[in-house]
Amino acid sequence: MEEASIPFFHVDIASEVLSRLSAKDLSSSKCVSKGLDSFISSPSFLRILSKRPITYIPIHKNKSFVQNNILNFLPEKVVIMSSCNGLLCCRSCIHPIDDIYRRAKNREAKELVIYICNPMTKEWIALKPEGCVVGDSIGLAFYPFGYSLNTRPIFKLVSIQQSKVDPHLYSFAVYSSQTGSWTTTKEVCHCRYQIYKNNKVFVGKMFNWLTQNHHILSFDVERELSKVIKLPGEASSSLTLGCSEGYLHYVCVNGEDFSVWMLKDYSSSEWVLKYQVTLVDICQESYTDLTHCNVKRRLLLAFHEDFLFMPMDRCLFSYNFRSRKLQ
């Protein structure tokens, strides 16, 4: 791209300024000119943008509201299944009562439709499972810069389903945007523990599901191999999975202790304790009194790039383990 095609003297200056804008402002900036639209959509700028860390999420008590219509550009109401690098994976709503009614009336069950969409640009595609059985837990892996020798953006969907014959066996169905088709992998994972379908995270090339009894089930999207890995430390009812610096992280609360573990190596299942702080430490460092909160029953919402998001005392907090700041 020529420097004259964007309203800046130098491409580096343009990258530095535009990469600091919010996703909403960046999307609006694409309407300024064709040159700016082309620059913001270029792979080189998107690579720079992907390396920018999330510094804060503004939440104001007097301005907060629920965005009920954020996905109103889709043709029907949907349930969000997963997200990855700016894309959402949703499925059509299939209410159990509606399904029972249809069967009672000898009508066909509502067909499952999967939507992959970009909520900022409002672009979307619809997919229907064909040639294989797709379960109700679907994960999205989006490679905006491609992978291996392919540099074009691609995405994959992974559906995990439990065997009806043996509840300890799990199989996987994979959709690839490269081939435009679904396939049932030959991999069958033997896992004695029930998975939490809605608690999953994609890191690098691995999908990871939390399971009961202090384990995770991991699936390699590229090699189509699975593995059951034991979680470190003591079992906890307040826990979540996340990603930071390209590594899988496990966060848990035991008593008043917050522990952050990093999976250093998948092959050896080696975990490293990265952070450990107490609720008292968090309060003292942030000049906030939260010692009256019952942390044992608190829900850990998410963990991303060393930020932990959690609701406490009817408020949403984010804690930065690097800077030790609570907001």
From TrEMBL:
It comes from the Eukaryota. Coiled coil: none annotated. It holds the Pfam family b-prop_At3g26010-like. SUPFAM superfamilies: F-box domain. Residues 76-280 form the F-box protein At3g26010-like beta-propeller domain. This is F-box protein At3g26010-like beta-propeller domain-containing protein.
